[in-house]
Amino acid sequence: CNRAxxxxxxxxxxxxxxxxxxxAGNFKMGGFRNSExxxxxxxxxxxxxxxxxxxxxxxxxxSQFEFCRYELKGGEGKEYKDKGYSGxxxxxxxxxxxxxxxxxxxIKRVIxxxxxxxxxxxxxxxxxxxxxxxxxxxxxxxxxxxxxxxLWLGR
Length: 155
Known about the structure:
Blueprint (H helix, E strand, L loop, with lengths): L1 H15 L10 E2 L2 E2 L1 H4 L7 E7 L9 H12 L5 E6 L9 H11 L5 E4 L9 H13 L3 E4 L7 H5 L2
Parallel strand pairs: 3-4, 3-5, 5-6
Antiparallel strand pairs: 1-2
């Protein structure tokens, strides 16, 4: 059956990422069932921090994470960080891992300190918002929640 083969291939990919399925039926195409996510050590929430090394006055990644953890309200989130990479594009190692986890259905909310932590390129930003919408991922910029951009997102 093609579905069974696809599920096995997906399970093998997840296992390579360090995620093991504990019992048959925990995986469904497009992601994990919400009831299984905690048991599989999968996170619905992600925190992303980015800091360029060329800007001496930029806020540290740890400080960014402190702001973002407040949004978790005591819950857990998977942390992704890129230190020493520019925000002018999205070609950053941990950011690419975050995008991969979104495509795998592991992440349902991305929390950042500021909008420009994910990209300063308006073209990249628009593409990312489309990707988030496609995978039903909420985007939360901690310090800019009430900005006009929220109207553009339709949230």
